[in-house]
Amino acid sequence: MGFKATLDAVLPEARQAVAAALSAVGGLAVLFKAEGYRLYLVGGVVREAVAGRFVTGADLDCTTDARPPEVRRMVSAAATSVWTQGERFGTIGCILDGRAFEITTHRADYYLSDSRKPRVAFGDEVTADLARRDFTVNAMAIDTADGRLIDPYGGRADLRARVLRTPLDPVVSFGDDPLRMLRAARFTASHGLEPAAALVDAVRRLADRLDIVAAERTRDEFEKLLLSHDPTGGFRFLAETGLITRVIADLSPRRLEQTARVVAAVAPTAVSRWAALFAHGSPAAAAAGLRRLRCSRSLIRSVAALLQARDDLMTIPATHPEVRRFVHGSAVPVDEALDFAAAVAQASGAGHLGLAAFAESLAELRRSETLDALAAPLDGTEVIAALGVEPGPEVGRALGFLLERTFEQGPLSKPEALAALELWADRELRFES
After folding, report:
1. Is the CB of residue 316 less than 8 Å from the CB of residue 231?
2. pLDDT tens digit string along 220-269?
3. Are strands 81-83 and 110-111 parallel, antiparallel or unpaired?
4. What distance, in Å, lies between the first and last C-alpha atoms of the chain?
5. Which pLDDT tens digit goes with each residue over 201-210?
6. Which of 68, 187, 354, 416 qualifies as a FRET site for 341, CA 20 to 30 Å off?
7. What angle do CA 160, 1, 58 make, to 5 degrees?
C-alpha cells in the first residue's frame, strides 16, 4: 500500500494535517531511514493531526529504536543545533531545517513505589513505548516511513468519543506516575474529554500518591490547568476525586465550581489566574498559599499586589482625587486592576457599582489629563532653589505637598506650583522657624 493510500484508508478525515506533520519531519526521517532505523512522530502533534489539525510551528516529538549515541551521531551531521541534556533519559534535541525536534529512544521504564522518578530502560518496540504514555489520545504514533497510524490502545476512537482513558490499567499508570492524575484534570478541561469511570475511581484510590511528587512539578502542572481557556471541567474533576486537597489544601471543594468560573473570567495570564484562584481571601492568605506551592517571589508579589489593588478598588470613592491617588500609588496598572476586579465581581455574582463609577471617573480624567504619568510638577533641585533651603526633610515635605495638591486639583504648571509652594512655605516652614 502506498503512502497516499495509507492516509486515505487510515486517516481519511485528517489527510492534510498528517501530511503537513510528515512534511515537517521529512528531512529527519530521511536520515533515520538511510541508517536502517525507524522514526515515529508521537505526542500532541499526532493527537492534533488525528483530529484534523496541524499546529504550525509546534515542536515535534519523535521516538525511535536507535539508541541515544546513534541519534546524536546522525543528527549532529545535519542539524544546525544539537542539545544533549536529556541524553541519559534517552532524549536528543536538535534543530533541523528550521524545526525543533526532540527524539527519544523507545522507553520501557519502570518505577519504584516510593518515587516518581523512572528507572530508565530502553526498548525496541514502539507499541511498548506507547504503553507508558499518559492517555490513549497521546499514545498514538505515525510511522514517518509510510504515514501509517500506530494506535494499539484505541486513542483515535477515544478522541472521537471524547473519552479520557489510560493505555494501561489506570491504577498501574497513576501508580507509576501520580502527576498523571493532575494531568487528567487538565485534559478534561482543555480538550473537553470525559474521564472514564475506571480512571476516576483510580484517582480517588490513589490521590495520596500525589504527595511523592515534587511541589514544583505539581504547581507547574496545575498552572497549565489554570491557564486553559475554561478550567471548570478540570476543577470539577479535582473536587469529585478529592485531588484538590492534595494540591491546594485551603481551597474549599464546596467553592470550587464558583472559583473555576472566576478563574475562567479573568485574563489568561499566570498572575491573573493565580490571583483569581485566591480571590475569596486576602492578599496575605494568597501569598501564604503560593509559598506552600513554592511559587517564585516575583509571582507571589504580583498576585498579592493585584489582589490588594482589587480590594482597594472595591472600597475607595470614585472622586477625582482618589482616582488620581490610586493610579499614582498602585503597584498594578490601573486598567489591569480594574479589568480584574470587574471580572471577579461579575463571575462571583456580586457585582459592584463602585467599579463602574471608578471607570467613568477614570475615563473623564483621561480626557483632560495625562493621568498615567502623574507626578509632582517640580523636582527636588527646583524646590531647593525656590525655597532657598539645604537638602533635607523640608524638601521631602514640600514635594509631598505638591504631589498632594496635584491629586486634589489635577496637574499644575510650574508657575502654579511655585506660587502654591511659596504660600505653603510661608505657612509651614517660616512659622516653624
Report:
1. no
2. 999 999 999 999 999 999 999 989 888 887 777 677 888 889 999 999 99
3. unpaired
4. 101
5. 999 999 999 9
6. 187
7. 50
